[in-house]
Write a structure and sequence with these properties.
With 162 residues, the protein is an all-alpha fold. The chain contains 6 helices and no strands. It is globular, with a radius of gyration of 16 Å. It starts with 7 loop residues before the first helix and ends with a helix.
């Protein structure tokens, strides 16, 4: 008899790797180009398994990101919870989108995430620049999305994550 597992460890492992990639040091000139790994992993799992990865999961993931970055507690949590809400409300449509359409939506969602966190940093007087270069992370995330989607989908199918 085949023993079925729910594969929670695969979800947690993907988030762990995303956190590691999020704290890898980049040169100062390249910081704006850093893909938003945690947000992309959250978008994937909320789209693929909306009944397992939801707004509460996004809130906790954002709090962990706040702790790792040393930012205001709740900054990323609020932004990721809003991103999860939007993804959950669109998850059935997202599954039918082509890779290019999904990348465009990832560009918009992560751009929204970056704008919300930047505005909150300005409100808390932690942001030092007012240019829009911080949005380049959304562009690099949209570029990386098709490969990340394929990798996470193969992991989900290979380990029968349900």
């Amino acid at each position: 008899m085949e023993q079925r597992t729910n594969g929670s460890w695969v979800i947690f492992l993907s988030f762990f790797v995303a956190y590691l990639l999020a704290i890898v040091p980049f040169p100062d000139w390249a910081m704006n180009y850093r893909p938003q790994w945690v947000a992309m992993v959250l978008i994937y799992w909320a789209m693929a398994l909306p009944y397992r990865v939801g707004i509460g999961f996004a809130w906790v993931a954002g709090l962990l990101m706040d702790i790792l970055e040393g930012s205001l507690l709740g900054l990323n949590a609020l932004a990721l919870a809003i991103i999860a809400y939007i993804t959950l409300s669109l998850h059935q449509r997202l599954r039918m989108f082509s890779s290019v359409q999904q990348s465009a939506l990832v560009l918009a969602l992560i751009g929204l995430h970056l704008m919300m966190t930047h505005w909150m940093k300005i409100a808390a007087e932690q942001a030092v620049s007012s240019d829009l270069l911080f949005l380049l992370g959304a562009l690099s995330s949209a570029f990386v999305w098709p490969w990340m989607f394929v990798l996470l989908r193969q992991m989900r199918r290979g380990f029968s994550v349900r």
